[in-house]
Amino acid sequence: MKKIKILLLLLTVSVAGFYSCTDNDPVDNEIVTTKSISLRTTLNEIKKANNINGKNDLSMQDQAFCFNFVFPLTLSYNDGTVITVASYEGLLEILTAETETLFLVGIAFPFQVQQEGAITTIDNEEEFYALIQECGFSTINDDVLQFSCFQLVYPISVINANGSTIEVQTQGEFESLLINGEVVEIVFPISVIQANETIVVNDLYELFDLYDECDGNTTSCICTTDVNPVCVQTANGTVMYSNACLAECDGYTAADFVSCDPVLTTNFGNGLGSCFTMNYPVQIQYQGALVTVNNDGELLQYYFPNQSSIPAFVYPVTANFNSPGGLIQVTMADQVTFESFIINNCN
């Protein structure tokens, strides 16, 4: 377990209540922090850049990022403790001391950042999230949409941008929610399945750690781009990989392979150009950017069957299906609808 360091010179700590000790009216000086997915995303990027994993090299500075925090910053831990961080070096020390039971979750708005020599004030979570997207940071949205190291066990609950808690039943439904860039907060705990093992994830800190482990594990797993599909049976259904190497990178072996027949008859790549055609141009979300695609060849470059059943379209999209009753043109508002049309018309 990591030991928490007492940072007497780099930060000040105030516990629940968070009142100034020098004011007769403490309510006027209450420090308010907001739980922030964007903060946790940024801290995760800083930890990866500085190799903070227990025994750390703290030599890299935040100049490597597209913005620098303007200190001091007021942050809060998951246990409610509020701290004031005086410098970037102090922030690195705090991140080094984080554990699975004590970690940063909140920040006091507004705060300032320096970007290309200009000082910008960040007033709320929406502005903070826009900043990290501009910087290309790997958000939970990106990980869920583009990575298949493990599978979420559904249903899960999320809190949407309106503050309402909604239940998400499938991966497709979750992707449809995230693909529009909406910031959602996952309600923990959740369960995931990795290499046939069910793992309970208790908070965002643990989820980021799990994704970081996946990133580390995939760096040495290099596969060819040949298409020779194999399938594995998971708790969420049959998953098809383009080839055996990709399946093995996710922890499966030949003993886990099952027949792909039910999947191949409804597979997007097989159906494109035969069961249905796309109305181009369309846009694809790829690694945080929007890519315009003009033909089938270009589209298939952004189709990763081991990650998602269909490409990460920006909806709505229109396709022409060869149905039993003749050619029909359908405009689809989300991935779930697209999947259902493939299943119902491409058998």
UniProtKB/TrEMBL annotation:
Q: Which residues form the signal peptide?
A: 1-21
rRNA processing listed as a keyword? no
Q: Which UniProt keywords apply?
A: Signal
Domain of life of the source: Bacteria
Q: Which residues form the Kazal-like domain?
A: 208-262
Report the protein name in the record: Kazal-like domain-containing protein
Protein species of origin: Flavobacterium buctense
What taxonomic ancestry is recorded? Bacteria, Pseudomonadati, Bacteroidota, Flavobacteriia, Flavobacteriales
